[in-house]
Amino acid sequence: MALLRAITTVGGYTGVSRVLGFIRDILIAAALGAGPVADAFFVAFKFPNFFRRLFAEGAFAAGFVPLFAGELASEGDESAIRFAEEALSVLFFTLLVFVLLVEVAAPWLVYVLAPGFADEPYKYSLAVEFVRITFPYLLFIALVSLQGGILNSLDRFAAQAATPILLNLCMIGAILAYGPLGNDPGFPTAGHALAWGVAAAGFVQFAFLYIACRRAGVWLRLVRPRLTPMVKTLLKRILPVALGAGVYQVSLVIDIVIASLLPTGAISYLYYADRVTQLPLGVVGVAIGTALLPLLSRHWREGAEPAALHSQNRAMEFAVLLTLPAALALIVLADPLIAVLFQRGAFGPEQTVATARALAAFACGLPAFVMIKVLAPAFFARGDTATPVKIGLLAVSVNLVLNLALMIPLAHVGIALATTLSSWLNAGLLARALTRRGQFAADERLKTRVPRIAAAAVVMAAAVLALDFAAAPWLAGSEPERIAALAALVAAGLAVFAAAAHVLGAARWGELRRGFAAPDA
Q1: pLDDT surpasses 70 at 319
Q2: CA angle at residue 429 from 423 to 431, to 5 degrees?
């Protein structure tokens, strides 16, 4: 499968998921605002999400996919599926024990993650309750990650890319159902309904991918867990990659710990701002990382280094082409964007301003977040986990120092800015390490295109900023007027960037497509 087709498949489904995620967050903001129930739910939701992104999607995918793809290429289907079954059994029983331990230790874990909640008993007790309801989600979603890794290695990207849609649908259904359930003692708040929606989503996603695997001819059995040589190799790769590949997630957890010490609302502001940033990050960054890892793994196994360099350069070009204008647009349109998305119900103008400031800070790091997704697979495909670990630990340490330095003068905005700065450090060090090894070098096309893309993005940002001032009366009007004005600004920005990119030579759409559709080897 051509790289562009794989990226657009994953990105398309991820885009649908992010749109549904916006609808979900709009409903959450209207129901919960940025109060104690919202803070408690977002902290609880961080627990399974953190471990999902760190281990299930980050470390496990980085360790499992190269091994499975390599076994598939060298030993055939039967050997690869046997390895998958062995990994499935070890993963399932390990996580089952882990989930049970978290259920027992939830009060202490909430204190560690959100120490500021200890002074607010109601918020603290809600967070503990929500953690216990949502955490079993991790068990199912980890199995989803394994099934998705198998499908991705078989060049079937659609099914796993569609699974986040199911999570958002379950949560949307939960918040919409809360009205009739509001008088039920089992659902005293909308946060309780959302927590149960998360728990249900895990099983739904697992069942969906189980069916997808069977349709692909993969029948996985739950065998007796054994530490076979392949499983030992997988575990050796998972543990360090959890630190290296999950640096962004670790940074976000540090953000929560620090934000819990700030006044009520800080955690919610960061959550809503991060959700907006996740749209381009998910559509571009996650899509590229998902598609690139099995491709680079095959290139490395076959010794096709020129093909690997070509794929990395085209992935980097595509990432810059989409994320640089997106970052500038999010900075310029932060206030109207947050107002249109969230300002209703319990979410007022004050919350809009606070969230918009955090969004602008996160947006400054968007290109770095995506560059990490492009660069990290080059290490994982070669089985190198030590280098990303060292770089990741350094970036996390810098993030912590910057959090403590910036939280006093800039409050929650300083926390977002610290994440951005540490992510740029992480991306820069990854690029330097690959360059020194001769495993990545910008080709002439990339060197020529990046400055032109940057110039086109600046032209777009200037045009949108001018139009933003002109549209001020409509952006301050009724809700239909605000939605129409924002939609017009976004459409104008896209048109200006496309025109500027063409005139400046930043992108030749036919050439770009042919480059991505080039043979894999």
Answers
A1: yes
A2: 105
Band (pLDDT 50/70/90 cuts) for residue 511 is low
Alpha-carbon span 270 to 267, nearest angstrom = 5
> Any idea where the domains of the chain sit in the sequence?
3-516
How far apart (Å, rounded) are the C-alpha atoms in residues 457 and 276? 19
- Only one residue has tokens 């933003």, namely 468
Q: Give the end-to-end CA distance of the chain in Å, rounded to a whole number.
A: 11
Question: Is the CA virtual torsion 186, 188, 193, 198 positive or negative?
Answer: negative
Could you give the CA distance from residue 396 to residue 414 in angstroms, rounded to a whole number? 15
- 72: CB partners within 8 A, 6+ apart: 80, 153, 154
| Distance between CA atoms of residues 272 and 28, nearest Å | 10
Angle, CA of 34, 39 and 45, to the nearest 5°:
125
**Residue 8: other Cβ atoms inside 10 A:** 18
pTM: 0.68
| Residues 115, 247: Cα–Cα separation, whole Å | 21
DSSP string computed for 424-464: HHHHHHHHHHHHHHTS----HHHHHHHHHHHHHHHHHHHHH
Q: Compute the mean pLDDT over every residue in the chain, rounded to the nearest whole number.
A: 81
Separation CA 497–CA 489 (nearest Å)? 12
